[in-house]
Amino acid sequence: MYKLRSSDKRGTTKNSWLNSKHTFSFADYYDINNMGFSDLRVINDDIVAPGQGFGLHPHSNMEIISIVLEGVLEHKDSIGNVSVIKKGEVQKMSAGTGILHSEYNPSKVNPVHFLQIWIIPDKMNLKPYYEQKTFDLEKYSDELILIASQNGERNSIKISQNVKVYQCLLNNNNTVEFTVKPNRKYWVQIAEGSADINTINLNEGDGLAFSQEDDLLRITSQKDNTNFLIFDLRP
After folding, report:
1. What is the dihedral of CA 26, 89, 56, 53, to 10 degrees?
2. How far apart are CA 207 and CA 194, in angstroms?
3. What are the pLDDT digits (tens) for 21-52?
4. What is the pTM of this model?
5. Which residues lie below 8 Å from residue 21, measured CB to CB, with a gap of 6+?
6. How do residues 113-148 score in pLDDT, each as one tens digit?
7. How many C-beta neighbours within 10 Å does residue 138 have?
8. What residues does CATH 2.60.120.10 cover in the chain?
9. Is the CA virtual torsion 100, 118, 145, 225 positive or negative?
10. What is the DSSP letter of 184?
11. How far apart are CA 15 and CA 126, in angstroms?
């Protein structure tokens, strides 16, 4: 069964410094029919104005991934990490027993555009942990790159959950194939661009949920530099 989550159906938080689109219920946006998908709880598509950001605030018992699409993001947390995340880099924070953090746009000129993703962990009250890695999507364009997994496979970021997250930068009219396994759930999120997922067209901000409809998923880009994610999740 396929379920399309159109970009224009997402929730919105918008103010003087933030334009955020919520695929699932988040903060003041509540949709009982879109509370998450398997262990995938949040996909927020955030644009933060220059010199602005999310001040110090707490989290616990959540795996939080940030993927920068454009600009730079400055991270600080209560376990001593201070870092800058750039385009092509992925940040993961295991909130565990509790952590305070801030995410800020240090640029005085350019906005920062990033995805924030929350995944429910398989164990509660883990020790808070931070990790950041670079994935060269342009060098390996037209290939699926494993960016997060439970065991840190293929130099991916380690996630405390039975999940794999793939990212791909796909050139126009090129196709990648992904084998769908039984007893798993999948979510495809188009971060930038447009692609056909088998017979279904997805545009920027669209998401597609599915289980084993076909043994093979064929993803064909309809624009240059289409950037998308595949989440391989528990049933």
Report:
1. -80
2. 11
3. 999 999 999 999 999 999 999 999 999 999 99
4. 0.97
5. 7, 10, 11, 12, 44, 45, 46, 205
6. 999 999 999 999 999 999 999 999 999 999 999 999
7. 10
8. 10-134, 145-233
9. negative
10. -
11. 34
CATH topology of domain 10-134: Jelly Rolls (2.60.120)
Q: In this structure, are residues 97 and 62 in contact, taking their beta carbons and an 8 Å threshold?
A: no
Cα 77 → chain centroid: 20
- What is the distance between the alpha carbons of residues 141 and 227, in angstroms, rounded to a whole number? 10
Select from 99, 128, 115, 20 the least CA-distant residue to 66: 115
CB distance 51 to 110 below 8 Å: no
Sign of the dihedral through C-alpha 98, 54, 135, 188? positive
Cα distance between residue 85 and residue 103, in whole Å: 10
153-163 pLDDT per residue, tens: 999 999 999 99
Whether the CB-CB separation of 9 and 21 falls below 8 Å is answered with no
Taking CA 131 as the corner, what is the angle to CA 130 and CA 132, rounded to the nearest 5 degrees?
A: 135
CATH annotation of 145-233: 2.60.120.10
Rounded to whole angstroms, the Cα distance separating 61 from 13 reads 24
